[in-house]
Write a structure and sequence with these properties.
There is one protein chain. This protein has 431 residues and is an alpha/beta fold. Helices cover 49% and strands 14% of the residues. Helix 13 packs parallel to helix 19.
Amino acid sequence: MHFLYNLLVTLLVVLAAPVFLFRFIREEGFGRRLRQSFGFIPEEELAPVLQKDCIWLHAASVGEIVAASPIIKEISHELPDKPILISVVTSSGYDMAKRIIKDADSIIFFPLDLPYLSHSVVKRVRPSVFLLVETELWPNFLKAARHFSIPVMMVNGRISDKSVERYHYMRSILKSMLNTVEKFCMQSTIDAQYIIRLGADVQRVVVTGNTKFDQTYTNVTLKEQQTLRQGMGIEESVPVLVAGSTHPGEEEILLIAFQKVRESYPSAKLLIAPRDIIRSEEIVNLAATYGFKGILRTKFSQQSREQHDIIVLDTIGELGKVYSIGVIIYVGGSLVPRGGHNILEPAAHGKPILVGPHMFNFKETYALFSGRQACVTVYDAETLGTTFLELLNNEELRLKMSQETLAIIEENRGASRKSVMYLKELLGRIN
C-alpha cells in the first residue's frame, strides 16, 4: 500500500506541474513556496533550528496557525531553551504565522510528502519532537520520523466525518502512521472516539480541549477598534454586521437578508470576508446586482471617501480583529453544506453569533454554544434577515448572548497548557 501511495503522490505532482508553472509565473512569492516544498530550504531559513533539538510544529493553513499560536506561546514559556520551527502548506498560513507568531525561530513551507524528500528534510533538521496540529498525517514524513526515532505528538486533534471516511481508504498505511504518534491530544470526546475508531491506541489518547479558546492574538483595544472603523469609513454610531469565511452561495443569502435590515437601519454596513479572497472582486460585483455599493478593504484608503454599503475584506489574517467591530457576526460555510467554520474567534470578542445548519465540522463547539443560547441557527435569507433585526432591536438579548459567549470562552481555557504538559512528559521520557 505504501508503494501505491508513493506512486499516486508522484503522479499527482507530475500532473500538477503545469499548474505549478502557471502559478510560478503569475503569483508573487509562489517560487519560494515551491522551492521549499521540494526541499530546497535556504540555510539561513533553518540556521536558528538546524541540529539544535528544536520543536517542529506543523500547521497546514490559517486555521491551524490560529490553533497553534497559544501552544507556541506556552512552549516558549515552559521550554525557553528549545528553538521552535513552524511549517505550513499554504501561503496564507505562512503570512498568518509571520503575522501572529513572534516566538517561532524559523517558519518554512512543509516539504511535499514525496518518497525520500521527507527523509532528506527530517535528516537535515533532526528535531527533538514533531507536533502535528489537528489531523496532518503524512505517511512519508511519519515514516522518516520513525526512522530517526523522533517522537510525534498530535495537538488540538480534530477528526471530521469526512476524514474518518477518507482515512478508511488508507487502512494499511494508517496503522503505521497512528502507531508513530506517541500522544493524541484531542479537542473533544467525539474527536477522541474517532481517532480510536481509526486505530489509535486508546492509552495514547487524551482530551485536552480546543486551543483556540486560548488564543489572544485577536485582542483589540477600543482605540484599535476606532482605527479599524476609520480605516473603512464607518462612523461610531453605525451598526456593523460581519460575515466571516463565506462560500459561494452564501453571499446571495446575506445580501437579501441585508436588504431587509436596511429597511429599518438605512445606515447599517455589511462586512463580508470570503473564505477565498480571490473571490473579493466577484462579491463587489454581486453586491451591485442587489443595489449595494461595495468596496474592497485594501482599496478603500486609495479611493475617495464616497458612500458605501458593503466592505469586502480582501486581506489575510485581519478577520479575527475585524470581528471586534461587528454588532452581530455570521460565521460562513454553514448556510451551504461545507461544514461551517470555527466560531471561537468572534466568540473571543463576546459577540452574538449566527450560523447556518451545516456545522458538521465543528459539532461539539456548535452544540456547546447553541445549547447555551450563545449562538443562533438560521436557515435561509428570511430567517437570517429576521434574526439580524431581532438582535439589532433587542440590546438586552445581545448583551445576554455576549455574556454567555464570554463565559464559555473563560470556562474552556487551558487546552494549550495541558498539551504542553503532555509534551514535557514526552520529552522527559526520551531524554
